[in-house]
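Incident review: delayed structure delivery

Summary: a single-chain prediction request sat in the queue longer than the usual turnaround. Root cause was a stuck worker, restarted by the on-call engineer. No data loss occurred. The affected request and its eventual output are reproduced below so the record is complete for anyone auditing the incident later.

Affected input:
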Amino acid sequence: MWRLGTGAFLDGLRVLDTGALVAALGIGAATTVLSAWRWCLVARGLGMRLTLKDATADYYQALFLNAALPGGILGDVGRAVRHGKDSGDLGRGVRAVVLERTAGMIVLLVVGAAVLVTVPSPVFDLLHANGARTAAVTAGIASAGVLVFLGMRRLRRGRSKAAGAARAGMSEIRAGLLSWRSGPGVLLASAAALAGHLATFLVAARAAGSVASLLELAPLLLLALLAMGLPINVGGWGPREGVMAWAFGAAGLSAAQGLTIAVAYGILAFVAAIPGAVVLVVRLVARRAEKPRTAPALTPAIAAAPASPLTLSPAIAAAHVPAMAPAPIIVPLPAARVLRAAVRVEARRPAYSGGVPA
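Output delivered after worker restart:
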């Protein structure tokens, strides 16, 4: 805002029309269903029950909360906890969401890296200008990955709790992401969802007046999607706008236009998540209706009546006052006779032995 002013932000609002909003809703619906299907595949691979209908509703609600709350992940935390509690296994429910989001991020990283290192872009130019540093960083990342893999293999052979957790984690990764039953579907859904996000970006770019080809825009849009994965945004805003402004400026395009495209995309993404607000409201209303109404406190009639039972009506006295026998007449006896009578009673009482008189 300091470098480009408020005009680029306001242009992101002005350039959108009804057609762009409808397109965002349609693309968002397809992307959400694909992501929910990916979640179903991962959850079922872990042995959990999750229908596509429930997954789609939960995913819509999570998207809305991610777009409305800071961090961009609180909605996913909510759906993980909800599914885990409903399934009776909170830990497995959380791990299913983590694996599902990890699958999408891995596909984004692989596709983004492949495009950024092969298609001319500002990142491509930076990588070639710093070839030695790029090679060193790449080698370091690869070495770290190999070390982590070897460490996990060695840890799995032990008998400690950490070894058991490592074995359980690897088995869940294989079952949820790498098995023949779920792996191809997870890969397909992740790639299709990524294509949907890029399509929404392209709608925003065309609405903002960009005439650049898809090949020119693809590296810049993928770079923005990678920046959106950083959990330091506020409702999805922040790194995306900064990266888009820098990338468009470095590519010889207008930095203000890049910022406008980022703002337009943010609005389109929020509009695509609006059905999640409907899901959230419906669930809150249903939850409030399901709560049992508190029964009114019943005040006994005797509490409102005078202290003396003689003033109560016969009906109330019969309902609330227990029947009492006439008070017996107690005649005091000498202490010696009372003692002898007590001794005689104790002498006649049978001894107790397991409930049978001895």
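Verification: The beta strands are 352-353, 356-357.
Action items: add queue-age alerting; document worker restart procedure.
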